[in-house]
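Sorry to interrupt, but I need a hand with the structure work. Go ahead and set the record down below:
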Amino acid sequence: LQRGDVRIACSQAVARSFLLQEIRTMREAYPFVKYHVSVMDHNSAMQALINYDIDLVLIFKPHLTAELRVVTSTGQRLVAIMAHDHPLAGSSSVRLRECMDYPIALPDRNFGGREIIEQRLVTSSMEMDVALEANSFDLLAHFVLDSQAITFQIEIGSLLCQADPRWAVRPISDADTPYGPLVLGYLKGRNLPLATAKFSEQLARSLDALRTLPLVEN
């Protein structure tokens, strides 16, 4: 494997942290492989896969269809992201109801995390004070700094915030949390190019390893 092209569509949650690190790791072994990364919502990613615009998807909560061959799937908890000095930051986990006492910075409806929150609210009397709605997790995360606002993300999408002392990342307690799958897959019946197949194997190993890692409390 000296050269090749990896075309992958991914959810925004994995682009800057998990996927970027995996590309760096792969490049250490295969420095001449090129990568084409498309960050998009799960519906657009699936359509790109079907249209042969990309070869591999790493997306959260896709609508599973007959066209998708799943390599691996891992459950993702929902976490609350807030400033390090937020009143809820002293707890090891938080309830969704507790979060609703504060302004909410909400991902838009193209993101699976938003779907999890809305599913929970449908069966309760909770109401959100939505201070900001955006399709950028970077914007949402920086908005909650120096404020009492809270935003939400899946575990793997909070890795950068976990590593930065400006933020506190707290899991939503299991009483409130439906788990959503992060899915790595490709088009059923298609033979992946060698570079893409190697990268897929690496991603699968790393995702399996993440299942055993606890959420880092900062």
